Amino acid sequence: MSADVRLVVTPTSAIVAAYLDVVRALMDDAFEGDFSAEDWRHALGGTHVLAWDGGDLLGHASLIARQLLIDRRPIRAGYVEAVGVRTDRQRQGIGARLMDEIERLIRESYELGALGASDAGFEFYRVRGWQPWLGPTYADGPAGVVRTEDDDGAILVLPVRARLDLTGTLACGWREGDVW
Fold it and tell me: What DSSP designation does 111 have?
């Protein structure tokens, strides 16, 4: 990776609209068009880590505060969203640097880190020490608590201060689009 790549950590509120448009375009590139409007909304409202090379945005990750329930016990979690690197700069260590900073932020402020991994990203997180949640997953929505079987095995956690039984139940709050 180029030594010129610098990371900028900033809240959503400090990013001007034009730069948010640049980040959104990067997500479309990194996810090859499979990044929905809901995915984008989920990435906003927290802390962003941006990788820049001069005036070129190379990568992005965001960290959102979410309350998760582990066996009905509330846990303050740092939830990772929208991790992506421009396609022509992937596999150069940029994603690892983004996650180094995200993990530092999680360790500073949360009991637990969590994320919903894509098939392509699953092993990237596993080698960094993220652990798959082995128990059933749920979402607490307008119709009550519902099982999210399709997400079983795809949710990864990074224990910080929370004691975990990875085979217990894990629940999140409802949101439009992918709840996890």
Answer: S
